[in-house]
Amino acid sequence: MKEALEVLDHVRLNFSPAGLLALNITIAFIMFGVALDIKLQHFKELVMRPKSVIIGVISQFVLLPAVTFLFIIVLNPTPTVALGMILIASCPGGNISNFMSAMAKGNLALSVSLTAIATLAATFMTPINFALWGDLFIRFYNNAGAGDYLVPIKIDFLQMVQTVVILLGIPVVAGLMFAQYLPRITFRIKKPIRQLSIVIFIGFVVALLSANFDNFKRFIHLVFIIVLIHNALALLTGFSISSLFRLPRIDKRTITIETGIQNSGLALVLMFNPKIFPPELELGGMTIIAAWWGVWHILSGLGISSFMAKFKLTK
């Protein structure tokens, strides 16, 4: 397996900043639609009972990186693949998790709150986790050569605040106000917006696959099972800890999704930043893991959300 994965280091993906911008604009639109189902009372309940928020943050930033490290020990992949998996696990939950929680009939206020908290916390938690677990990986396998890839990661706090405000704050507030003052129109547009959101996500999956179709066709067999198991472990981690602490089923759904839907877009942005990872480093293993995560977690998220939605909520 390790020898086969070494070929990934020489892969170069087509990464479009314009495509990422289009995705962010789409997420803002989707968040507006998600917020149409949220009421201010939902946020007040979280403040009064913060247990689910605390468990959700622990699941994302403590348990998922640890579970990822254990999986890497068993898998023993190449350094770039291993560090790519660690970087993915160190990132906050993806913004599409809010859309998935809405589909799953989870706790939308909890989902939005966790995404906002995790995104801001990522400014220090992502670098800490990448450095901590990456160093443990290198020490465990005595792989000194991998140290070149374990670079200090810097994430701009103000940029993260801007991301939260633009992608979450403004759309959510707009959706809340729209639902509050225009209830009749809200009732009419909620379903069409949800259906349009699904179509848009499918479109992005197709576009991403098309832009890198040759690479995916040649190397997908090397990373498909790795990402599938890694993503399944992430979902199981969120479900397990929320079950252990006997959270309401509606919160279990959200924490499961929030832990399993990672911000692979942020991981790719970090990987393609020459100020973080020098251009001379061959990061093919890292980038293709993150890129396939970006595709797969949409597919798995849609699947698990649709599955959850079939079951009625109980305490």
From TrEMBL:
It holds the Pfam family SBF. It is a multi-pass membrane protein. Keywords: Membrane, Transmembrane, Transmembrane helix. InterPro entries: BilAc:Na_symport/Acr3 (IPR002657), Bilac:Na_transpt (IPR004710), Na+/solute_symporter_sf (IPR038770). The keyword Flavoprotein does not apply. The chain crosses the membrane at residues 20-40, 52-75, 81-101, 108-133, 157-181, 193-213, 219-245, 257-277, 289-309. Its main location: membrane. It is found in: Membrane. GO terms for cellular component: membrane. PANTHER family: P3 PROTEIN-RELATED, SODIUM-BILE ACID COTRANSPORTER. This is Bile acid:sodium symporter family protein.
